[in-house]
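Q: Given only this backbone (474 positions), what sequence would you predict?
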């Protein structure tokens, strides 16, 4: 290394750290993966702690303003993801904080119905082209209210007996040899240690992986969804009727304005993707390409550029687009939109081959509909996820149940979404509790026992697996 490129370093003095808790399972990160993990572990009898750096749960699905839970059904309309994810939706639904196509409409090709959902608050996610029959179909996709969701998630944790540790960063795993024994956290009380029999990394970014000695894959390809940050924001108090009238009456003028906005560096695309009483609010989510989303300089760049873009776009819309005159910036997402980053190399690495293999793995813990991949989706509407994709190679005491699960970028692009992470979390939390009870490493948890427990919790698994696991009945 040349002298000019050498980094200056200093030694951090060793110090004694207070052990603030000793638990069975510690879940680090309270996003979709962390929610599933913590609820499943606690409900399965493990003394469980959930550490979250912000003051609320939900991760990107609340603080990131990503209020869309898509692809719960496959293209035929058959529900494939349920369990804790469905439970959250049911609770939000009971509070009128969730919108979705009616159950009887899932899979429908009826033109009137399809058009109804295209014209309702979120055209794109409610409907997909079924290339097998050359027609559009209605899917099971849910829109949520992020603030009610934050409240409801807290209640669910409380009911399950999860110990919440908010405003606390998981900064480093406690490692002995090849085994993770807990984590160091930092918060306003200082640096503390939490000892645990199993640690589940649900940070989304895989913060614990490299310090734990786990092998990681950081490769990504430019141009993919996961190779970009996003800076989501809401603009509110828009007269949508007036905007639509303008778009319909003067399409060329509208297109011209959008081109001008694009030339000035603004965000010209938004979705009316919110629950019905959010009338007059739209969601922007401009993307910022980056192949290094775990780099603090990149994170800072996007935070600054994102805010600039938001301000510029808002100003332009308000001055130029009828309907936006009285609008205001309702919210910029408290959690920056990270989509890619590193992924653990696990006992099994999911690849694009798995998207066309139709393989039902012996250790299948979830089924994910694939509705977004054109011809491939048409021929292979679902993929199975093996438990081994949550288990890092060689490192004991650690599971990964978030978008950093073991997968190549081509697979991760389609299956790191909110319902998927909740489902992986449910499997990881259940497995962690089984491991603690049996005093074994999570890697050794018997697949059949895990699957049986998941079926009992309302998780949908392939018929073949359900038969082998005895349909989940104890
Ligand atoms: C603009 C955009 C649009 C998207 N659209 C959709 C969509 O329509 N539908 C969909 O399903 N998905 C969508 N996604 C993807 C989806 O939001 C994520 O893939 C999903 O939220 C991943 O869940 P996760 O649990 O892995 O991570 P996250 O949601 O990122 O949650 C991680 C949690 O861990 C916490 N955390 C992180 N590091 C630490 C630490 N060191 N210590 C303590 N806490 C920590 C965070 O604060 C956060 O709460 C979109 C993403 C973006 C950015």
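A: Predicted residues:
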């Amino acid at each position: 290394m040349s002298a000019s490129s050498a980094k200056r370093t200093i030694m951090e003095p060793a110090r004694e750290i207070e052990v603030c808790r000793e638990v069975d399972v510690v879940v680090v990160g309270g996003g979709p993966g962390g929610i599933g993990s913590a609820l499943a572990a606690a409900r399965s009898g493990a003394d469980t702690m959930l550490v979250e750096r912000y003051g609320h749960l939900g991760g990107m699905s609340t603080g990131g303003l990503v209020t869309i839970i898509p692809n719960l059904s496959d293209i035929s309309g058959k529900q494939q993801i349920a369990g804790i994810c469905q439970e959250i939706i049911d609770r939000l639904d009971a509070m009128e904080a969730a919108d979705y196509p009616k159950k009887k409409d899932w899979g429908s090709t009826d033109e009137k119905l399809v058009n109804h959902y295209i014209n309702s608050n979120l055209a794109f996610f409610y409907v997909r082209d079924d290339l097998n029959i050359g027609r559009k179909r209605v899917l099971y996709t849910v829109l949520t209210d992020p603030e009610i969701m934050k409240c409801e998630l807290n209640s669910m944790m409380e009911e399950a007996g999860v110990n919440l540790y908010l405003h606390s960063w998981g900064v480093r795993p406690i490692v002995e040899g090849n085994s993770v024994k807990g984590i160091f956290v930092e918060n306003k009380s200082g640096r503390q240690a939490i000892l645990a029999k199993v640690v589940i990394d649900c940070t989304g970014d895989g913060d614990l992986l490299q310090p734990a000695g786990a092998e990681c894959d950081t490769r990504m390809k430019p141009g993919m969804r996961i190779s970009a940050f996003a800076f989501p924001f809401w603009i509110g108090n828009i007269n949508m009727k007036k905007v639509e009238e303008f778009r319909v009456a003067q399409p060329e003028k509208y297109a011209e304005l959008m081109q001008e906005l694009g030339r000035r560096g603004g965000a010209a695309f938004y979705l009316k993707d919110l629950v019905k009483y959010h009338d007059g609010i739209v969601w922007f989510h401009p993307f910022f390409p980056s192949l290094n989303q775990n780099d603090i300089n990149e994170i800072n760049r996007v935070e600054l550029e994102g805010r600039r873009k938001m301000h510029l776009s808002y100003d332009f819309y308000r001055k130029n687009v009828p309907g936006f005159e009285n609008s205001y910036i309702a919210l910029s997402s408290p959690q920056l939109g990270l989509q890619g980053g590193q992924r653990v190399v696990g006992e099994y690495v999911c690849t694009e081959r798995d998207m066309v293999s139709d393989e039902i793995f012996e250790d299948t813990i979830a089924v994910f509909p694939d509705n977004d991949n054109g011809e491939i989706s048409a021929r292979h509407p679902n993929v199975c996820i093996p438990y081994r994709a949550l288990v890092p190679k060689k490192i004991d005491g650690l599971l990964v149940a978030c978008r950093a699960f073991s997968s190549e970028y081509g697979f991760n692009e389609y299956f790191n979404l909110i319902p998927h992470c909740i489902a992986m979390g449910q499997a990881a939390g259940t497995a962690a509790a089984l491991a603690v009870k049996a005093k074994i490493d999570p890697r050794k948890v018997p697949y059949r026992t895990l699957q049986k427990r998941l079926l009992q919790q309302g998780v949908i698994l392939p018929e073949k697996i359900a038969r082998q696991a005895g349909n989940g009945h104890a």
